[in-house]
Write a structure and sequence with these properties.
Number of strands: 0
Shape: elongated
Number of helices: 10
Structural class: mainly alpha
Helix content: over 70%
Order of helices and strands: HHHHHHHHHH
Amino acid sequence: IAFAKRELDEADAKFHSVLNESEDLELVTRSTLMLSRCYRERGDIDARIAFLDEQIGKADRSIQMRLIRELADSWVMKAHVDSDQAPDCYTHALEQYRKLYDNGSRTITLLENISACCQNSGRIDEALEKADEMINLYPENYLGYVRKAFVLAEIENRKDPAERNYREFEEVFNRARELSENSGDETSEDMANLIETYNSVV
């Protein structure tokens, strides 16, 4: 009730009380998830990271993968607000996303997150590999082509100007645009960002 009323401090205290005192698995599980939401709603990223990191080893197996995903997402959020530590934050996020991957998950969102974290932490080869995996598993989804195009653009941008060749980037960009139009997502934020990149390099 306190959470629903946005009384986050009171909700925090009650959920912690359940974790410390209850042996009811269902209540403990729900309180763990709700506490994670409390930290997110308050924008307290560091506290959320510390809480999730502690709880993953304690939580019931039924929610461990969810907590790992939330921890990874929290590291990405921290990267967005702390540019000085961003590469390390993306590396921490990548460690958690890889746990989900090693557990068998192959959702397009997970693959996209792994590729993006690899790119943002300087692991360009792996970023390209995961973008290709997105395309192989979801060939009609434009997001794999968007992700690959971003990686290809960075690969070329790292070269001396005289050595740059954006031909493959253009091919992948055109495929992303075609598929996004087919799915009605041509105005998505992903495509808008890619078009901006395209206009800056071609």
